[in-house]
Amino acid sequence: MSAPAPRRRDRSSVTPGMANMKSKGLFKKLVRQDGTALPSLSEGTLRDQPLREIVRDKIRQRIYSGQYAPGGRLIERDLADEFDVSRLPVREALRMLREEGLVAERSTRGLVVRELTRADVEELFDVREALEAMSCRLAAQRATDTDLLALKRLLEEAKDATGRQDAGAAREANGRFHDEIPRMAHNELLRNILEPLHGRLQWLFRQTDDLELLCSEHEQLLDAIASGDTELAARAAEQHVRSSRHRTLHALFQQAQ
């Protein structure tokens, strides 16, 4: 009796990036590093996300958390070993993070986690105030009921996490709250302008320790947007950013403004 023909593997649903992730063991490695489970490939969440973006997101998360400290070196070879991937997606991830302003190149040390100066933070708040006021003004004009419900759910997530004293989850929800507003503005150009600033702005959103006050300000912002009054929404955004500026500068540079 002849041996059965070998079964052909169906590669129709396996992209090169997915194959690389499997062969390099990225899924297992990422779970081991921080103890949190990424969605499995079967859930479809990562099916269309390039490997470089997955690596970028993990490095960004560790910068936010302080695991990669300001001024710390980011060595391509070491990161590739840490995430169990080739050096190419790490190189691309670091390039994207340089564009976001979270990583800088130093002539004597190579790539490092960027240390933001007081001037850097002031400039970021100047830009954030202008763009956030515009985002909220447009959101008040264009947001749908579905948009408003999504924003309310993020606020409830932040409140719930704050009540549980889960600062990490609260900051994550508050960061997504801010991400949602430009989407609600339904202005693609505005979102494209904000994209290169995303990393630095998200870092700013995570600097405040008064999470109850932050939730209160976000609730006022949501109410202003939901009212449909564009100028009220813009003023609420400006007041929120100025309050955040005061708290952040004090927290980072240990002096009241």
Secondary-structure map:
Elements: H1 16-24, H2 26-34, H3 51-65, H4 76-83, H5 87-100, E1 103-106, E2 110-113, H6 118-142, H7 145-163, H8 167-184, H9 188-194, H10 198-205, H11 211-227, H12 230-253
Antiparallel strand pairs: 1-2
Helix pairs in contact: 3-5, 4-5, 6-8, 6-11, 6-12, 7-8, 7-11, 8-11, 11-12
Structure description:
The chain has helices at residues 16-24, 26-34, 51-65, 76-83, 87-100, 118-142, 145-163, 167-184, 188-194, 198-205, 211-227, 230-253; strands at residues 103-106, 110-113. The protein is mainly α and 257 residues long. The chain folds into 2 domains: 21-37 and 44-113, Winged helix-like DNA-binding domain superfamily/Winged helix DNA-binding domain (Arc Repressor Mutant, subunit A), CATH 1.10.10.10; 118-253, GntR ligand-binding domain-like (Four Helix Bundle (Hemerythrin (Met), subunit A), Up-down Bundle), CATH 1.20.120. The chain has a two-stranded antiparallel ribbon with strand order 1-2. 32% of the residues are buried.
